[in-house]
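#onboarding

Welcome to the new folks! Below is a worked example of what a typical request in this channel looks like: someone posts a single protein sequence, and someone else replies with the predicted structure as tokens. Don't worry about understanding the tokens yet, we'll cover that in week two.

Example request:
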Amino acid sequence: MEKTNNYKCPACGGGLIFSPKTGKVTCEYCDSSYTVEEIESKNKVQETADSGEQEKEADIGNEGAEWSTDSLSSEWGSESGSMKEYSCPSCGASIICDKTTAATKCPYCDNPAIMEKQFSGALKPNCVIPFAITKKEAVARLGDFYKNKKFLPKLFSDKNHLEETKGIYVPFWFFDGKTEGSAVFRTTTTSRSRRGNTETITTRHFECERTGSLDFESIPVDASKKMPDDLMDSLEPFDFSAMKDFSTAYLPGYLADKFDDTIEECTPRAERRCSESFVSSLRASVSGYDSVSLKQSNITFRNGKVRYGLVPVWLLYTKYNGERFLFAVNGQTGKVAGTLPAGKSEVFAYNARNFLVSLAVFASLIALAAKFVI
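Example response:
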């Protein structure tokens, strides 16, 4: 069984969690707070002391057992590759979780547990964006998201209850590099002339070629198969100026996953985003035409570098009419993304109002026309 780690308060020994409000690690019991650097230093001292102690395990025999254990098996088959077992550093309980889990809570003592081995070697993130939005603020942002939605069922916003709210550090690849190349655009200009009752429309067609280069930095692509790509894309942008060098001291109190989408799998998404930005930049230089459309482009990538980091996301689950809805809140900016249900009665009422307005306008026009005829 692999060991986990957690951060304990040097003052009282209580569990520590990272506070988005203060940017410090805070004790849940005595309210002591420490900077990330302070708690890292204290944790290293404690690890050194612990390494000198020898652990002994009791040998439990089964002499005289009357119960058959023939049906028990330690072979998990295909499931073994997706699960891992850890030991809680606070109470010693076993924690069984997904193999990509890097930070969680013990289901027995509720203390944070960090699987530090998940961050060792090549798997260790380069950077992290700490949480700046609290759980309470995330719930409030979701409430604001409900407001002024025309087709949202009233019962959904009035009576739905959040089933689960959890803060999670989502793994991301950040791509840095440079694009260069060219693009050809089809363009047209249109002019009109009139002679007597005849109007002539003249359309001229051109091709405009543009070349250039564009540097890009921190193009984000989420590296978790469990997280919907469109949901993560909708939470952008993140403020990368607040990015910190990675430390496990930012993780207590939150869940965290390591990547399971490889760089090779995510590269096409990053290159597609860079290509679209590059073509859009070239397109902006084409002006003075009535229409512009892309004909072809030729783009290459240079000096590419990839970094591995974690970004903060609040996930909120709610249920309505037996269906589960997932919403995500950017843990740094508070931006909300998710799909809301559309109520049949609200859609019907909206269409009915539009029909009555249209009918009233039509009736007014008929009455006005009749008045002129008379």
